[in-house]
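HUMAN: Forgive my ignorance: could you write out one protein's sequence and backbone structure tokens?

ASSISTANT:
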Amino acid sequence: MKQVLKFARLLVALGAAVSSVSTPASALPLVSPNAPGNVVYVADDCYAIGMQQARQVGGQLAKATPETRGGRTVCVIVVLVPGRDGERPRRNEIVVPLN
């Protein structure tokens, strides 16, 4: 019990010290990274392309990932197409260049 009280006092003292020293968030400088102005979110584009491909073949999008092949960025899309007569879905891998 004594250890619990000691720990509680320590936490209260630490909280008081931190609150008296801390600066409000509005006083902190705003830092922005040195990123280029044209940022392209490739994963989002691959997902959109994957959804289109899945819709075209009548399947369900399982995975859409960007890869670099031969110096070009491509989207590797995996679509699960329903099997015939109750069979397992077929895995269809499609590679689409990202333009």
Q: What stands out?
A: The chain is about 35% helix and 30% strand.
